[in-house]
Amino acid sequence: MSFLDDMTLGRYFETGSIVHRLDPRVKLVGLLALLAATLITRSPWAYAFLTLIVLLVAGLARLPLGLLPRNVAALKWLLIVVLVMHALLAEGTPIVSWAPWFTLEGLASGAVFAWRVGLMVAAATLLTATTTPVDLGDGLEKAFGPLARIGIPVHELVMIAVIALRFVPTLLDEARRVMKAQMGRGVEFSGGLIARARSSVPVLIPLFVGAFRRADDLALAMEARCYRGAEGRTKYRELALERADVWALVLTGGVLACTLAISSWL
Question: What's the pTM value of the predicted model, to 2 decimals?
Fold first, then answer.
């Protein structure tokens, strides 16, 4: 239950902030720049700078204070595995004499990689929390529109991605309801790993059935509205870069340059 309560990736939070009003293409570029900066550097100082930038953007977006930590904490077991694997596999100075395979250098490397994963999750949370699925789909379609000239079905692929993203919070809410219903019937979700795996079966089966039912209803609704893909389709609102978007792109480039400078100097 705690994992489902913590995970809010894919959920939109309307606050009317300047970050929400930015062009979705600008926010996509910002996400890609932050991911690139996170991947090309291993400096803890650079990660501290990027963490500060993420927190600053979250503050400008007026998002709930615990939103980013909750999403990162939802993947705590993945982060622990990353930390332990690096500590066990990297060579270096043993932390304790009776466990020479558990090294201090490996622990430091694992902490950096876990920090990297946390930054990526926080950046993705910022994008989905400040951009509606419709706007995100419009931005992706506009950005990759030229690929349609060589036969790639950009609109259809973007539609699939947007629908999948839109149904993430819906499926999480459905899973919460199913778990509460099963707990009311006496199903226990505590205990060891094997006991939890067995207790997940009464949740997964109705969850998959509900997901297929929702998919079928969505397909019928799209057919009833005469959906035929990108052919002859128009936009209610055309995307256009404004002054704030240009400044956001300039600041994104500045953040990327500062990250590379910090990584090379420190």
Answer: 0.77
